[in-house]
Amino acid sequence: MKDCIFCKIINNEIPSFKLYENEYILAFLDISQVTKGHVLIIPKEHYKDIHELDETAAKNIFKNVPELATAVKEAFNASGINIVNNNGEAAGQTVFHYHVHIIPRYNEKDGFRTIFTNNMDRYTNDDLKQIANQIKDKL
């Protein structure tokens, strides 16, 4: 895609700190470095988000995630790793070329936060059954 910053990185029109590359994907440092060692994995073919990925593209991306996550964790002796993928503006996606973040974690004050609200008291078993069925109907 002509105006996509990640496509420009793939085409060497914009410099990057490449870590790994094969015929399907490119992994490179995120220049924002939310935490030290923050890596992005992108498909070389342009897909806007996870909803555009086909099965082959998904396999080619995700088969490399464990090895790259382990390399990042070991390189910086991280206490943990977040694997993050944002899809759509409401989810925080800012570059509309599918990508996976590998974010090493050091402690709760390292600059990255994930907050999961526990809403168990808001849903009955019947509510959960209905939610599950709505999703199953789309599979």
TrEMBL record:
Keyword Transcription regulation listed: no
SUPFAM superfamilies xrefs: HIT-like (SSF54197)
InterPro entries xref list: HINT (IPR039384), Histidine_triad_CS (IPR019808), Histidine_triad_HIT (IPR001310), HIT-like (IPR011146), HIT-like_sf (IPR036265)
PROSITE patterns: HIT_1 (PS00892), HIT_2 (PS51084)
Molecular function terms from GO: bis(5'-nucleosyl)-tetraphosphatase (asymmetrical) activity
Keyword Hydrolase applies: yes
Keywords: Hydrolase
Entry annotation: catalytic residues: H99
CDD domains hit by this protein: HINT_subgroup
The protein's enzyme class: hydrolase
One Pfam match: HIT
One GO-annotated biological process of the protein: nucleotide metabolic process
Domain HIT: 5-112
Residue ranges annotated as motif Histidine triad motif: 97-101
EC number: 3.6.1.17
Protein name from the UniProt record: Ral function prediction only protein
Organism this protein belongs to: Haloplasma contractile SSD-17B
